[in-house]
Amino acid sequence: MNQNSTRFSLLSVGDSASIGRRYRAAELVQWAAIAGAPEPDGHVPEPLIAALFSNLLGEQVPGHGTNYLKQQMRFHDQGQVGEELTATVTISRLRPDKSLVNLETRCTGEDGRLVCSGEALVLFKH
Fold first, then answer.
1. What pLDDT is recorded for position 2?
2. Cα–Cα distance between 12 and 101 in angstroms, integer?
3. Phi-psi group of 43: left, alpha or beta (phi > 0 → left; psi -120 to 50 → alpha; rest → beta)
4. What does the longest C-alpha to C-alpha distance in the chain come to?
């Protein structure tokens, strides 16, 4: 068994990881300048919420060797500047024959409200 299939075999449906992040107003102004976007109006821009999922997929579940194939997100509310946002990814399906991993993605505000939900499909090879 090679290293790739060994690492893939360690994954299980239901495995999950979370990360919390609080964006400050000054950080959002810097991001807008770099991205060429309008300055945020007290809300966390959607690409910064998507970045939380990217961090989780590449660093935790599945981890290093992850390549995005597809991401679908539905925004239900806006993240507020200064509030703790918690992003979570959970493995919903494994396809070892193709090294594919489907994941559910969710981001909640500090009051527990759903900010974003969706799905991701990644190729997991090292």
1. 46
2. 10
3. beta
4. 52
Strand ranges, E, within the chain: 16-22, 66-75, 84-95, 100-108, 114-124
pLDDT tens for each residue of 6-27: 788 999 999 999 999 999 999 9
Q: What is the distance between the alpha carbons of residues 120 and 73, in angstroms, rounded to a whole number? A: 9
CATH architecture of 3-124: Roll (3.10)
Handedness of CA 43, 87, 106, 124 (dihedral sign): positive
Q: Which residues contact 50 (CB under 8 A, 6 or more apart)?
A: 71, 73
8 Å CB contact between 88 and 18:
yes
Look up the pTM and report it.
0.89
DSSP alpha helices (H): ranges in 10-93? 25-35, 46-59
CB 117 within 8 A of CB 76: yes
Residues of the chain with pLDDT under 50: 1-4
